[in-house]
Amino acid sequence: MSSQSNLLNFKAWNLFLISYFLFLILGCSSSKKTSASNNQTKDTIKNDTYRVIVSFISTGQGIDHHAKEKFITYNDSMAVINHIFTKYEEIHWGREGEVDYCLMLKELNSSKQKIFVDGLKNIFADNKLVFIKENSPCINKRK
Predict the structure, then answer these.
(1) Is 35 domain-assigned?
(2) pLDDT computed for residue 45 by the predictor
(3) Strand partners, 89
(4) In this structure, are residues 54 and 67 in contact, taking their beta carbons and an 8 Å threshold?
(5) Is residue 23 scored above 60 in pLDDT?
(6) What is the C-alpha separation between 111 and 13, in angstroms, rounded?
(7) pLDDT value at position 41?
(8) pLDDT digits over 50-74, tens only?
(9) Residue 106 is part of which domain span?
(10) What is the pTM of this model?
(11) In 29-140, which residue ranges form alpha helices assigned H by DSSP?
(12) For residues 77 and 134, is the Cβ–Cβ distance under 8 A?
């Protein structure tokens, strides 16, 4: 058990370091923002629209629990980097543990939101049991 615990700690630490360096590289590059693009982003995101939704699905054998742990670790590491905890709604909707994490990301400015979402896409790029949607309503949310 000790070696599994060390392996999980090592993976979590690696994920944190990768996220940190990604933030440094992308966050330190200078970019000019136009007011038109800022206004367009604000108009696109409505009250019932979430900036990003991370869905963990199942194909008959339950969700990928390691991927879910990666999401929690990534969200926590980004909170450490940005000194802001990003709030999410956890929506359980299936019989096999299916869950959506719906994030508004109002705590982050638009460039940090992009970094956050791009990081999620990179982490789950090859995972067929994780879907990432942007600027969408949280459809499994109970009304």
Answers:
(1) no
(2) 41
(3) 102
(4) no
(5) no
(6) 24
(7) 43
(8) 999 999 999 999 999 999 999 999 9
(9) 2-24+45-136
(10) 0.66
(11) 35-44, 65-82, 110-123
(12) no
Residue 54 contacts residue 100 (beta carbons within 8 Å): yes
The CATH number of the domain holding residue 108 is 3.30.70
Which two structure tokens, joined as six digits, stand for 36? 């038109």
Could you give the CA distance from residue 134 to residue 81 in angstroms, rounded to a whole number? 22
Residue 64 lies in a domain: yes
Query: Is 76 inside any structural domain?
Result: yes
pLDDT of the residue at 42: 46
The values of phi and psi at residue 106, to 5°, are -65, -20
Question: How many whole angstroms separate alpha carbon 44 and alpha carbon 24?
Answer: 27
Q: Are strands 50-56 and 89-92 parallel, antiparallel or unpaired?
A: unpaired
- How many domains would you assign to the chain? 1
Give a yes or no: residue 31 inside a domain. no
**Alpha carbon separation from 112 to 33, 58, 72, 101 (Å, rounded):** 13, 30, 18, 18
Q: How far is it, in rounded angstroms, from Cα 60 to Cα 32?
A: 47
- Chain segment 77-112, per-residue pLDDT in tens: 999 988 888 999 999 999 999 999 999 999 999 999
